Inverse folding.
């Protein structure tokens, strides 16, 4: 699947560039394509520099958590649920605790912590995979839920809006929460359908229903707060939880008489080894995305969507927010750039600017997640992971547009 997608990006870019040259006389498009290749290769290295430090830091702390028994305790706590959602993962396996930590970090908007934890979890799942190149059912479910990215505190979106001068940077909080909940639900249901998981199992419902009620209560509580209080709470919780995890790992390790410094160095060394293996996958995916953007294929798609929407007699205001949605599956940095550009050109508090911010917070970067998570363990055949992840992403985008009209229309 990834082979076909990667080749397709280059073929679509080549066809679009050829059309611009032959029909539009734009001979400079080929120079733009070549320049994009070198720029994306450079960007891949820059991303790797950041990943080296992040992975080294967090896998060092994770090794302390493992030695202190925290990962085993989390695996025991969620064992009954994951035995039904991931039946091939044995009870008490360390992957279960790491998956729990990864989901918690994603929910709190702690991307820097979530990625290394997720990579560690994927490596643990690979130890149970009978194939070295084909994704297992458990790996697919884990990846799709990561791509859907349930986020309770989208602090970075608030920061982007504040930088652009938004009157109320947290105004998009509840729309993002609704959109990201929709993407996560669709991701779970799609994987459950493909893998024939029994979500109506009493044990599964016993875990999921309280979580849904808790989420609803949290939304009701946060909706009652003022904008200032909500912004302060979001920032405080994000940083408090992040540093609290570190201190908690260190204290737990000290109580269990773990040599925390030596343990950290051992885990950090593993993080370095993981990071260096990701570069080929990042170069491949980012270069493919770069030529697709440079060819103008995405611009043509946007204009085609606008024409179709107008022909149907619908409100086309949301189309100005779609550049973020169109590049989000491929590149997180491109999506951030598109979001900032939309807020600058359309206005940070315009309808398009608010919807684009909601889209940005609704899902994760699907193909980046595929490249990084599967690339870290050498997976080449993704099976139904791509389809389910893209379905979840589409649900998040549609939900973002829908709640945008509801809240801001």
């Amino acid at each position: 699947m990834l082979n076909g997608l990667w080749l397709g990006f280059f073929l679509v870019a080549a066809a679009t560039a050829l059309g611009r040259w032959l029909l539009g006389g734009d001979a400079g498009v080929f120079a733009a394509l070549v320049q994009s290749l070198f720029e994306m290769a450079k960007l891949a290295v820059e991303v790797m520099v950041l990943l080296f430090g992040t992975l080294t830091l967090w896998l060092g702390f994770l090794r302390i958590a493992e030695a202190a028994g925290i990962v085993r305790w989390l695996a025991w706590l969620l064992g009954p649920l994951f035995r039904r959602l991931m039946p091939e993962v044995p009870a008490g396996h360390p992957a279960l605790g790491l998956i729990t930590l990864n989901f918690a970090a994603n929910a709190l908007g702690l991307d820097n912590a979530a990625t290394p934890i997720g990579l560690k979890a994927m490596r643990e799942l690979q130890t149970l995979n009978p194939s070295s190149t084909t994704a297992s059912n458990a790996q697919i479910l884990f990846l799709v839920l990561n791509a859907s990215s349930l986020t309770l505190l989208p602090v970075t979106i608030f920061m982007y809006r504040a930088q652009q001068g938004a009157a109320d940077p947290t105004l998009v909080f509840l729309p993002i929460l609704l959109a990201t909940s929709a993407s996560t639900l669709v991701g779970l249901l799609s994987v459950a359908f493909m893998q024939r998981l029994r979500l109506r199992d009493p044990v599964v419902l016993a875990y999921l229903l309280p979580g849904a009620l808790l989420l609803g209560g949290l939304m009701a509580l946060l909706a009652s707060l003022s904008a200032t209080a909500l912004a302060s709470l979001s920032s405080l919780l994000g940083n408090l939880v992040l540093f609290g995890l570190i201190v908690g790992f260190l204290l737990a390790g000290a109580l269990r008489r773990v040599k925390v410094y030596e343990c950290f160095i051992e885990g950090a060394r593993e993080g370095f080894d993981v990071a260096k293996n990701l570069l080929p996958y990042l170069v491949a995916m980012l270069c493919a995305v770069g030529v697709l953007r440079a060819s103008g294929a995405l611009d043509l798609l946007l204009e085609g969507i606008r024409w179709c929407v107008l022909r149907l007699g619908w409100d086309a205001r949301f189309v100005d927010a779609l550049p973020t949605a169109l590049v989000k599956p491929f590149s997180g940095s491109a999506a951030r750039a598109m979001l900032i550009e939309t807020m600058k050109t359309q206005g940070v508090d315009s309808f398009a600017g608010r919807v684009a911010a909601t889209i940005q917070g609704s899902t994760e970067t699907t193909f980046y997640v595929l490249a990084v998570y599967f690339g870290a363990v050498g997976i080449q055949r993704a099976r139904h992971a791509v389809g389910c992840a893209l379905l979840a992403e589409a649900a998040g985008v549609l939900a973002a547009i829908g709640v945008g009209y509801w809240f801001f229309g």
Q: What stands out?
A: The chain has one domain: 2-408.
